[in-house]
Amino acid sequence: MADEEKTVKKAATKKAATKKAATKKAAVKKAAAAKPAAAEKVAAKGNSAVKRLSVTLVRSRHGRLAAHKACVAGLGLRRMHQTVQVIDTPENRGMINKVQYLLKVEEA
Question: Which of 4-7's residues contact partners 24+ apart within 8 Å by CB, and which partners?
Fold first, then answer.
């Protein structure tokens, strides 16, 4: 009988923890959806004032440092000779400078 009570208590505790985690995740998602990223805020104010950079991956990321691969991915580049346009922010400039030997950058 004591074993059954322990099992029931464990199940109830586990269920409560799962429900709490799900509620927390939902709150985080809602908050993220409510606040646009800083770059999106700048872009929403007026696209004419936003400077953009055209970035092309011209050398492979294979065999590179993990931090360099992360910078390439952070810029939105997935494959060779792919071109993306990014907003000219200090964060994007930093990533571009870190892996400039892999990229071709032009002002768009």
Answer: none
Structure tokens at 91: 């964060």
Domain total in the chain = 2
Residue 29 in tokens: 């998602």
Please provide residue 65's backbone torsions phi and psi, each rounded to the nearest 5 degrees. -65, 150
CB distance 62 to 69 below 8 Å: no
CB 50 within 8 A of CB 81: no
Q: What's the pTM value of the predicted model, to 2 decimals? A: 0.57
Say if residue 15 is in the same domain as residue 61. no
Q: Domain range spanning residue 69?
A: 40-107
Alpha helices (H) along the chain = 2-34, 38-45, 66-74, 90-98
Report the chain's mean pLDDT, rounded to a whole number: 83
